[in-house]
Amino acid sequence: MQTSNADINKREQRGREIFEEGSQIKRLNANHYRVNSQSRQNRSYDVSMTESGWICECPDAYYRRVQCKHIFAVLFSLEIRREVEVCKIEPVIINSCIYCNSFAITKFGIRHNKHSDIQKFMCKTCEKYFTINIGFEKMKHNPQGITTAMQLYFSGESLRNTAKSLRLIGMDVSHQTIYNWIQKYIGLMQKYLDKIQPNVSNTWRADELYIKVKGNMKYLFALMDDETRYWIAQEVADTKDKHDASLLFRKGKEIAGKRPETIITDGLNSYHTAYMKAFWTQRKPRTKHIKEISFDGELHNNKMERLNGEVRDREKVMRGLKKKETPILKGYQIFHNYIREHKGLNGKTPSEACGINIVGDNKWLTLIQNARKRTTS
Questions:
Q1: What band does 39 get if pLDDT is binned at 50, 70 and 90?
Q2: What is the domain extent for residue 221?
Q3: Is 346:222 a contact under the CB 8 Å cutoff?
Q4: What is the pLDDT of residues 118-130, one digit of tens each?
Q5: Which one has a higher pLDDT value, 358 or 83?
Q6: Which of these, 9, 47, 260, 303, has the minimum number of CB atoms within 10 Å of its CB?
């Protein structure tokens, strides 16, 4: 069926109007959207990507085989989404004097110490000597060794096995030293990363799992984005049924800068109470709470169970946590979001799926450098 340019322009204009209304398009995933009907209440149409292009189940697209207003609306949404600036975190390169900011600097030998060698520089303008070791100032060991220890530990090794592995590259450190490094740098990175807003989807998941802290049973409550698997927030609670998870949900809103359209949990009553406190509003559109889930079928929580499995594997190596305020859980959250590549995301990290790219082969080093630079600037 032939279509006039006037008809195409009319559908394109109507699609733009649908997009500009703001709440008419729901993104289910990268290739699947749901657009509200403009003529019938409580009716929506699926718009999805196929090998032949975008298709819609509305009568206009189905019977007339044309690009309907709903497809145009999705295309406008995609165009804006592509324009969202990607946050790129690059390695810090200092090419000026730390004293007078002059670019007239030159290498001036190597400073040797017991554990590492550091490049020395001389400024031709102020004639002062200095070293550049951002994030690792006054550390006895070199940055590569420290970040290697963190990678080994959060990849699954124990503190003692990590110390044994470092001896193979000439680093003789104790397991307590490695823990001190983790405590120092996880705190530094967390303060920096908390200020970067991830571009998460509109569907979030929450779940809890039991962990041992000093031999006592505690519960780790975690909030994760459904599409990107970005671990948004966490908290450790003493109880399961009586815990107020609304603080977790409010923390998620603060980090993401929005509330989700859908929150998926299990049937724990405290989740619905928290949902009413943190997400429910009188005004529409409201956040939908899905709580009747199972291990199979369409409504399952398998993605959260996978995250729980990661934490459980880490806990087995540690044989339990030593204290409730441990930096290990926050460290694993950073590892999960920014360092670990996920097969379910085609080899991307959750942060990359959220538009936060860490540049460089050593992502730990890039994060620590930038975190240190932001705290001193």
A1: confident
A2: 203-376
A3: no
A4: 778 899 999 998 8
A5: 358
A6: 9
6/239 Cα distance (integer angstroms): 63
Give the DSSP H or E segment for 290.
strand 288-290
β-strand partners of 111: 118
Q: Is residue 10 part of a domain?
A: yes
Between residues 236 and 111, the one the model is more confident about: 236
CA separation (Å) from 145 to 81, 151, 360? 39, 10, 16
Query: Rounded CA gap, 282 and 127, in Å?
Result: 66
Q: What is the pLDDT of residues 215-253, one digit of tens each?
A: 788 899 999 999 899 999 999 998 988 899 999 999 999
Amino acid letter at 356?
I
Q: Residue 231 pairs with which residues in a beta bridge? A: 224
| Token digits of residue 104 | 């007239």
Quick check: is 239 in a domain? yes
| pLDDT averaged over every residue in the chain | 86
Query: String of b and e for 254-275 (b: at least 16 CB within 10 Å)?
Result: ebbeebbbbbbbeebebbbebb
Counting other chains too, the contacts that 122-131 makes at CB distance below 8 Å and 24 or more residues apart are 123/97, 123/99, 125/97, 125/100, 126/97, 126/99, 126/100, 126/102, 128/97, 128/99, 128/100, 130/97, 130/98, 130/99
* Model pLDDT, residue 247: 94
Residue type, 85: E
How many distinct helices (H) and strands (E) make up the chain?
12, 14
Task: Give, rounded to a whole angstrom, the gap between the first and last alpha carbons of the chain.
Answer: 63
User: Do residues 217 and 358 share a domain?
Assistant: yes
- pLDDT value, residue 29: 75
Task: Write down which residue in 59, 83, 107 finishes a domain.
Answer: 83
Q: Is residue 335 part of a domain?
A: yes
Q: Is residue 208 part of a domain?
A: yes
pLDDT tens per residue across span 280-289: 888 878 899 9
What residue type is 243 in one-letter code? H
pLDDT of residue 377: 56
Q: What span, in angstroms and rounded, lies between the C-alpha atoms of 73 and 70?
A: 5
Tell me how many domains the chain contains.
2
